[in-house]
Design goal:
alpha+beta, 4 domains, 17 helices, 10 strands, about 60% helix, globular
């Protein structure tokens, strides 16, 4: 069997868009339906390639799915900005990265001015085309920026953008301006913002759904279960999803992949491909952000009760007199006083973090989180929780470096038991972080090292 995937396909449907009631939302389905009459097997990513076996065809889709996943994991924030005025049209955060969009848009405008004047002092790189990509650093993030006729898109990224993400950005801009031209023209003349209903198109284009909270369908028909049982990877995925749902109301794909990989020793892109098949068949279902927020709120209420009963967030401050004083003081504080205290603790935490005094920073952040949780300040809870999690990553990074160096020293001394113990600590830290941008290979290398050391015992 030889499988052909064909791209790009040019097709004139023969209908003026002004006379078509289905334009533009149903164009894709309409064109697909007409092309399928010619016997073409259409996929979302069209590319003319000869695939000479079913295995290679599957591998191609596995790799495409994995790259989409890596791209969406990389995106922290999406901004659509009016090109003429610099005003934000759509401000869509994907993670709690805490980006100040007002400062960012000002920074972007300054960098574009520098770039267009020929200055490269701010590190902005452009590719010199009519609508070039701009790439530069902003705080700890990588920025990918591209202009079109009416708008510019800004992606806030953890790492530099892949080629596939850049292609997607170009395609998105072209289609967005064509699809929402009327809205853009009205904005230019009236300055009235009316772009909230375009967010679904952004979610679909950038595959944001892959990082949404997930749940399982409540109904598995007998023939469905039999079909899943015949696929051992899909069966493992469903089993582990059920385990994750036993303790939480939803799960995330990245966590599910990690859990399956602990037992099923296969590549992550293969697992993701099978997850995508389960998503396609509605066996795994993305939940709405609103549902996830409701579940989180219920969790926060539990946290508030736990805190009120002296069950503190972290053992770090469990015996700290300051937290006991804060608990008593909080009983008589007004919301305004609480808000000021939260800002003060957060500021102290940030100062300590910059000075690399991480344990002290964690104490201050958790005092702020204690107050925010107890008084149900939702925005502060999300922002400070993110600071705590990011700081925890730094602390784990230091612990990892220490354990790794200690393990290497023990190995050189031929103290194999202690070497194995330190390397196992490294493995635990790496698995806790659940970062698929490099940790996967390190985990495998450490696992092999432990196995080799065990041969000496």
């Amino acid at each position: 069997m030889v499988y052909f995937q064909i791209s790009p396909v040019g097709f004139n449907c023969g209908i003026d868009k002004n006379n078509c009631q289905r334009y533009p939302d149903h164009c894709k389905e309409c064109v697909k339906a007409q092309l399928e009459k010619f016997g073409l097997d259409l996929k979302q990513n069209l590319k003319f390639t000869i695939i000479d076996s079913e295995e290679r065809r599957t591998q191609m889709f596995q790799d495409l799915n994995w790259q989409k996943f890596l791209d969406v994991l990389n995106i922290k924030h999406i901004l659509l900005i009016a090109k003429d005025s610099g005003l934000p049209l759509v401000d869509y955060p994907i993670s709690g990265a805490g980006v100040d969009t007002q400062l960012l848009t000002g920074f972007i405008q300054a960098n574009i001015t520098f770039s267009e004047s020929g200055s490269n002092s701010n590190g902005m790189i452009s590719n010199g085309k009519v609508h070039p990509f701009y790439e530069f650093q902003y705080e700890t993030f990588n920025i990918l920026l591209k202009n079109r006729e009416f708008i510019r898109i800004c992606l806030v990224l953890d790492h530099k953008a892949s080629d596939s993400l850049k292609i997607l950005v170009s395609e998105f801009l072209n289609e967005y301006e064509a699809r929402y031209l009327g809205k853009l023209e009205r904005f230019i003349s009236t300055r009235k913002l009316d772009f909230e209903d375009t967010i679904d198109f952004i979610i679909d284009t950038f595959n944001i759904m892959l990082v949404f909270p997930m749940t399982l369908t409540h109904i598995f028909l007998p023939d469905t279960l039999e079909r899943i049982k015949k696929n051992p990877i899909q069966k493992a995925i469903i089993d582990f999803a059920k385990q994750l749902l036993a303790s939480k109301q939803f799960f995330f794909i990245i966590n599910l992949i990690d859990e399956v990989q602990k037992i099923v020793k296969i590549d992550a892109n293969v697992i993701l491909y099978e997850i995508s098949q389960l998503l396609k068949n509605n066996f795994i279902i993305p939940t709405t952000i609103e549902i996830a927020e409701n579940n989180i709120l219920r969790f926060q209420e539990t946290e508030a009760t736990r805190l009120a009963n002296n069950e503190l967030i972290s053992p770090i401050i469990a015996n700290d007199d300051a937290i006991h004083e804060l608990k008593e003081k909080a009983k008589y504080m007004s919301e305004e006083e609480v808000s000021k205290a939260i800002k003060s603790y957060t500021k102290k935490g940030e100062t300590a973090e910059k000075a690399l005094i991480y344990k002290e920073a964690q104490k201050e952040y958790e005092k702020a989180l204690f107050l925010a949780t107890g008084f149900d300040f939702k925005e502060d809870i999300g922002r400070i929780s993110f600071l705590v999690l990011e700081l925890d990553k730094k602390i784990k990074g230091l612990d990892l470096d220490y354990a790794l160096k200690a393990g290497e020293k023990a190995e050189k001394r031929k103290d194999y038991i202690n070497a194995i113990n330190y390397y196992q600590q490294c493995l635990k830290i790496l698995k806790d972080v659940q970062d698929f941008n490099g940790n996967e290979s390190r985990i495998k290398k450490l696992g092999k090292k432990i196995v080799n050391l065990q041969k000496h015992l």
